[in-house]
Amino acid sequence: MSWRNMRRTDHRRAAAALIATLALGVGPQLAAGCELPRLGEGRVAAIIDANSIRLADGSELTLAGLARLPPPRIADQAALGQWLLGREVTLHGHDAEPDRYGRQSALIYRAGERVPVQAQLLQQGAAVASGELDDSACRALLLAAENMARKARAGFWSDPTAIKNPENPGDIMTRMGQFTVVEGRVLTVRSSGATVYVNFGRRWTQDFAVTISRQQVTALESVGLSPKALDKRWVRVRGFIGNRNGPQIAVRHVGQIEVIGDR
Predict the structure, then answer these.
(1) I need a surface site. Which of 63, 82, 141, 194 has the fewest CB within 10 A?
(2) How far is the C-alpha of 37 from the C-alpha of 68, rounded, in Å?
(3) Between the CA atoms of 187, 189, 193 and 195, what dihedral angle is there, to the nearest 10 degrees?
């Protein structure tokens, strides 16, 4: 066996071991429950960036469910290449329409595998979940994979500042316009007009807050997560940082908010 073939064999064995570990770690029911319609297939010809690939037929794809983090993400792009470059893949999702960049968003599976590459990247810490997947089973799968990396402090989560503290709004403001994960205790929940404000501080004009539109309140309540029930809970929220009387994250998808305890 040539040195090149030995390296290829070692890589495949390592990949298979990671897939088995991931499936065991997130639970077979989670992996089996994420079953979206098949949209197509192809061979990955190029890695565009840490979130996007190009197939041999020229079509471009965005990996659904992953946050677009600030560049450069050289290590994350390399990890994506290791998983996908030159591989036959199948695409799964509910919507075949391209985004404004002409890219179709989908869960990507390597041919013959049952765990999407998104979950594999998240388990490595080579990606962060956006919380934007509409399918609850697939969203749970990705969050479970991310949780494994966070507990192991792998990749992105090895940085002690990866999760921002709402008690330091000035630090959060440095992430203006960037996707950010914030975790802390909710102090108050109040409504003003058609917006619910989930406040993590008492200075409403300076401290970090989460805003939820009336439409999203209904969506959250439909999955058993009433904004009023967030009061005094320990919450993890993810999204792009905006500035309106202090740093804010606007919730547009139910997966952006997780209740993680009462501590």
Answers:
(1) 194
(2) 24
(3) 90
